[in-house]
């Protein structure tokens, strides 16, 4: 059975999607894991990073995204396109030749509108878990094919994100080590805990992943030290992802031969490999 890990932070732009893509690729190519990535963000950043905008548009036109899954749950009209898991999962999606075993459940801009309708369903029946179990029920059919399921969440705790949490066994919090990016961490922990208590579904905090680290920044070093001392944080992953132009450029959908070519060999590859190793090790202990 796969271990499912959500990537979450209420702060936007801290590297959630970039970290999720890199983790998936390193887990697959460097550690031999079969990985499914789920993009729950209507911004579709992760989806277009992995398959490009043109392919996403084709899939979206055919209703082969997660928007169809959630739409079916709010509108049971059989005349509407029905979610088809086997056609929606995109297999072997990495832009890196050396990565073979990463699959993707693509997101859609239409998720935004579907999310509103789904929230309305939940509002009308606040004690029902059904609106947050849609993703988990759908993924159950394919979960056994994978070692890891990585869920990239939007920077909010809306009902689509809650679907991700309901599937997740644990979560990681990517954060830039600065004041504003770390400000909301206690809120995330509390809200996830509250959700776990309400639904009876246990979700373990795996740890914080430091992103966009600048070695010449005294603020970054001081923030990391503060986080390491903070007893309310389960674990600060010991390897920090450096801020790097090449990691930023990896968002563009172009082909690469190896992970080193994609992310850079001046410390980026080693840092991302170690983060993946830490997440694997911690998830085996905690999940
Ligand atoms: N280590 C890094 N070094 C430099 N740039 C980075 C790094 N990680 C991410 N970025 C860049 O920072 C921006 C935000 O990254 P990303 O989209 O991964 O963040 P996010 O937390 O998923 O954002 P959102 O909240 O909008 O979903 C992107 O332009 C990305 O390319
Ligand atoms: Mg993102």
UniProtKB/TrEMBL annotation:
Lineage: Bacteria, Bacillati, Actinomycetota, Actinomycetes, Mycobacteriales
AAA domain span: 3-202
Name used for this protein in its record: ParA family protein
Stored Gene3D superfamilies: P-loop containing nucleotide triphosphate hydrolases
Family annotation (Pfam families): AAA_31
UniProt xrefs under SUPFAM superfamilies: P-loop containing nucleoside triphosphate hydrolases
